[in-house]
Design goal:
It contains seven helices and ten strands. With about 180 residues, it is an alpha+beta fold. It has two domains: about 90 residues, no CATH class; about 80 residues, Orthogonal Bundle (Arc Repressor Mutant, subunit A), CATH 1.10.10.10.
Length: about 180
């Protein structure tokens, strides 16, 4: 297997300053974005078909959706390096990236799509590790979508749940939809 980072000397093994920065970037991709080494390797192999870089992890600006690695080509076109150089429509990736927020303390909040993968989809369900131990909740609350759905399936009305929780009927409906979708999957 080709090494991800080509060290300056193998006998004795030595790293250059650029190698050190490449190790730093690899560590960053793995720890901050959970991008696994095989995906990085595949992305670098695809990148080598487009560009020649001595130190691609440092020389090339990457973007990620926390699943794959992308580069911008031809102005603003996104290329998915983990999928063989597949071109990505920016509006589609943008809609997905806007569903993930990071606050000033580094806490992630994820707003999953409930019905359709469109930018207009409401952000009424949130998943974050600091609320309800990472279980889905109604956005802005600690109200578990599972609890709302189970009460609805026990024949409580959407209106009575909305009144009791102090939320809109639309938020209650979205919580039920989310749970119904996750059960079906």
């Amino acid at each position: 297997m080709e090494p991800i980072i080509r060290i300056v000397s193998t006998s004795p093994p030595r790293l250059s300053f650029m190698n050190l920065m490449e190790c730093h970037m690899l560590s960053f991709l793995r720890s901050n974005y959970s991008i696994r080494v095989p995906k990085v390797r595949r992305a670098l192999q695809t990148l080598a078909r487009f560009h020649t870089h001595l130190h691609p992890l440092v020389d090339q600006p990457f973007e990620t959706d926390q699943i794959d690695l992308f580069i911008r080509e031809f102005g603003d076109e996104l290329v998915n390096l983990c999928r063989g150089g597949q071109m990505i429509l920016p509006e589609i990736l943008g809609a997905h990236l806007r569903r993930i927020e990071v606050d000033s303390t580094g806490i992630y909040r994820f707003f999953p799509f409930i019905e359709e993968r469109k930018p207009t989809e409401p952000r009424s369900v949130t998943i974050t590790p600091v609320v309800a131990f990472g279980k889905p909740v109604i956005t802005g609350t600690g109200i578990s979508t599972a609890v709302v759905a189970s009460r609805f399936h026990a024949r409580e009305s959407i209106e009575s749940l909305a009144e009791e929780y102090g939320r809109s009927p639309k938020e209650i409906e979205e919580a039920i939809r989310w749970e119904s979708k996750s059960i079906a999957a």
